[in-house]
Amino acid sequence: MSGAAVELVDVRKRYVAHGGTIDAVAGVSLRIDPGDRVAITGPSGCGKSTLLGLIAGLDTPTSGRVAIDSLEVSSMSDEDRARLRRRELGLVFQSDHLLPFLTATENVSAQLALGDATGEHTGSVELLTSFALVDELDRLPDELSGGQRQRVAVARSLVHRPRLVVADEPTGSLDPANAQAVVDLLLEAQRETGATLVLVTHEVAVADRLDRVVSMADGRLVTDAQG
């Protein structure tokens, strides 16, 4: 499997607010090659999470073009973008968004069902076991620690072997030890599968572990450096 290419051309996301309009993303152009590991950094409110949402097809730009490989995500219907996310993307957020009534294994397997893949639990069990969660397979989210919950969320994002993994502050609510463990899992999975990884973080120690660091300020790219 090869990773997906990502391309943004003069992308702008504008919101109407009291007193005028705000460009959360202000004319960003960016190319991410297949298999790249890219961190997007910057202060709170700089537009990095908005940019990641546009890359993932969770939102559409006010103007400009967003493409994953040859697919212009920014012009797709909501249904087509949702289908693309289920099959080709892995999403990780600061909040784990686990379904409280499903076990750890069932939460991971739910991703397979959403993507029209087999709903068998075998792959989910193997992945969770490799994430040191063999004793938590049948536990509900409320029975897990914060670090364990986030590892389940990472497993859910990877079980269908996506070609693009997007992670929005995946370590933001974790202590340093658990934060390092979650980044370890993401990087190891990327090395194994060759997926493209785009990770938003405000933590320098996390950004420095990726191969390329893109910094934003006021909705614009200000630096783009290889690690």
Jot down its keywords.
about 230 residues, alpha/beta, 6-stranded mixed sheet, 4-stranded antiparallel sheet, 7 helices, about 35% helix, about 30% strand
Summary?
The protein has 7 helices and 10 strands. The chain is an alpha/beta fold.
Could you describe the 3D structure shown?
The chain is an alpha/beta fold and 227 residues long. It is 33% helix and 29% strand. The strands form 2 sheets. It has a 6-stranded mixed sheet, with helices on both faces. A hairpin with a 2-residue loop joins β9 and β10. α3 crosses α4. The two termini are 24 Å apart. The model has no long low-confidence stretch (mean pLDDT 92).
Low-pLDDT segments, ≥5 res: none
* Protein structure class: alpha/beta
Can you count the beta strands? 10
The overall average pLDDT, rounded, is 92
Cα-based radius of gyration, to the nearest Å = 17 Å
**Share of residues in strands:** 25-35%
Describe the global form: globular
How many helix segments? Answer: 7
Which strands sit side by side, in order, in the main sheet? 6-7-8-3-9-10
How far do the termini sit from each other?
A: 24 Å
Q: What series of H and E elements makes up the topology? A: EEEHEEHEHHHEHEHEE
User: How can the largest sheet be summarized?
Assistant: 6 strands, mixed
Helix residue percentage? 25-40%
How would the blueprint of this fold be written?
Blueprint: E1 6-17, E2 20-32, E3 37-41, H1 48-55, E4 63-68, E5 71-72, H2 78-88, E6 89-93, H3 104-114, H4 122-130, H5 146-158, E7 164-168, H6 176-193, E8 196-200, H7 204-207, E9 212-217, E10 220-226
Parallel strand pairs: 3-8, 3-9, 6-7, 7-8
Antiparallel strand pairs: 1-2, 1-4, 4-5, 9-10
Helix pairs in contact: 3-4, 3-5, 5-6
